[in-house]
Specification:
single chain; 436 residues; alpha/beta; FAD/NAD(P)-binding domain; D-Amino Acid Oxidase, Chain A, domain 2; 2 domains; six-stranded mixed β-sheet; 11 helices; binds flavin-adenine dinucleotide
């Protein structure tokens, strides 16, 4: 039997962790090294995947992601690795002026999924649900409210850590290192990746290098070969940040916290993207995210080309949040619970969470077309976490050349895409416009 290739998976967020687990399950004797600047047990990490909690839902207006999310959700519910961290609280969707509710139902029906969990309600009825929890929400322009009782949330950092522990238990080597560059060699006029070079001078070699580097991906590619423009991400990937924070809840409110549904509201639409709020019983709090999507466009230190990258500090300066961005998260409380309740609540643990975003919201799970032995598996585009139990399976299929052609095309490094400049939504603001 031939020896399986050796792998370096760089980045231990959702994409890297899930890939490591699925890869070692498939190739038990393979040398697989998972590298990250942070230990997987660290109390805080820069990974977008490191978080107090994340929404787990199969509510998509897109059939492919509905199917994938349903597959993931089955494992969140049933698999001993993920089940302890999953809470099926339901999700309430306040989506003005869209056909989202209908599209979600159509997708579930098309996939033959039992619709018992899905409900669509007129606004007055929605206001009264869950004891009137979202009675004061901003329902401007909303026709129907979608409630999916089969969706919920997960304890994100715990589930991520457990996934990595499983992979390590099966033989994956975990290395804490800041990677400075991907290394290459030239063979017959074509370059191939041979490993990575760390900031403290270590060289790690492997047959295949898989970049699961989230918001840092575009910068790492330029750092690795500043003059080799075919290697660079260009307009494929943008680092985008969103502010989140936690809000402690009172003793009275704590009573209902365990069973509180996730709330998502796209109002007020003129402020940006959707806001959300989800329970965090372990901390006696809720977590919210804001509406402003941020770029951080700066000249690359070597090429001077402008690109959006996470702030240069070791921790992406993720805990340094301007008052205006703090207020942006406070808006989540207003949008979902109304002015009166929101004004009573204080918020803490403000964080700007950076993700890799593509103009269509599709992941990149693909060989790099300019470089042999180099693969990219990231770009969660603000919806990647829920796929933790399954996304690695698809990355392994990609690595083995077995990925379904439709997914290959959709997640390709080179694909038709609207440009970042004229997609018309998201990531419109610059971090520099929000001074501390
Ligand atoms: C505020 C916010 C809320 C979200 N909520 C949800 C949600 O509710 N549900 C959902 O499904 N999705 C959600 N998402 C999206 C989801 O979190 C991301 O899409 C997903 O976690 C991205 O995973 P990743 O593995 O690509 O990147 P990351 O999780 O960012 O991991 C990348 C890893 O690479 C490492 N790395 C990068 N460069 C280097 C280097 N040079 N050397 C060493 N290590 C390196 C980093 O340290 C990091 O650990 C949310 C995102 C944000 C920002």
């Amino acid at each position: 039997m031939s020896t399986p290739p050796s792998y370096i998976i760089l980045g231990s967020g959702v994409f890297g962790a899930s890939t490591a687990l699925h890869l070692i399950r498939r190739h038990r004797s393979a040398s697989i090294t998972l590298v990250d600047r942070d230990a997987y047990t660290a109390t805080h990490r820069v990974a977008a995947s490191w978080d107090w909690n994340k929404v787990i839902r199969a509510d998509y207006d897109d059939l492919t992601y509905t199917k994938l999310a349903l597959e993931a959700q089955r494992l969140w519910r049933a698999d001993p690795i993920w089940r302890p961290f999953y809470h099926q609280s339901g999700v309430v969707w306040i989506t003005p002026g869209t056909s989202f509710a209908k599209d979600v139902r159509d997708n579930h029906a098309a996939l033959g999924v039992e619709e018992a969990d899905l409900g669509v309600y007129e606004v007055p009825e929605a206001r009264g649900m869950y004891g009137g929890l979202f009675g004061g929400a901003d329902y401007s322009g909303v026709g129907e409210v979608l409630v999916n009782r089969g969706s919920g949330w997960a304890e994100a950092k715990e589930a991520l850590q457990k996934t990595i522990e499983e992979a390590v238990g099966l033989g994956v080597r975990y290395v804490v290192a800041e990677v400075e560059k991907v290394k290459f060699e030239e063979v017959d006029g074509r370059r191939r990746a041979t490993g990575v070079l760390t900031a403290d001078g270590r060289e790690m070699l492997a047959d295949r290098v898989v970049l699961c580097t989230g918001a840092y991906t575009a910068k790492l590619l330029v750092d690795s070969a500043p003059d080799w423009t075919e290697l660079h991400a260009g307009k494929r990937i943008l680092a985008v940040g969103v502010t989140e924070a936690t809000s402690p809840v009172s003793e009275m409110e704590k009573l209902g916290l365990d069973t509180m549904p996730v709330g998502i509201n796209e109002n007020p639409v003129e402020r940006g993207e959707d806001v959300g709020c989800l329970p965090l019983p372990g901390l006696g709090a809720v977590k919210c995210w804001g509406q402003i999507h941020l770029k951080n466009t700066v000249p690359h230190p070597i090429t001077k080309q402008p690109m959006s990258i996470p702030p240069m500090q070791r921790d992406y300066a993720q805990w340094e949040v301007s008052p205006v961005l703090q207020e942006d998260v406070q808006w989540a409380l207003k949008s979902l619970f109304g002015d009166e309740k929101a004004s009573l609540k204080k918020m803490e643990n403000y964080r700007i969470c950076w993700d890799a975003w593509t103009p269509t919201g599709d992941f990149i799970i693909s060989p790099h077309s300019a470089c042999d032995g180099l693969f990219v598996a990231t770009c969660g585009s603000f919806h990647g976490f829920k796929f933790l139990p399954v996304i690695g399976k698809y990355v392994v299929q990609m690595l083995s050349g077995e990925l379904d052609p439709a997914l290959q095309e959709r997640w390709a490094w080179d694909r038709e895409r609207p440009t970042i400049d004229d997609d018309g939504k998201g990531a419109r603001r610059e971090l520099k416009d929000f001074p501390l």
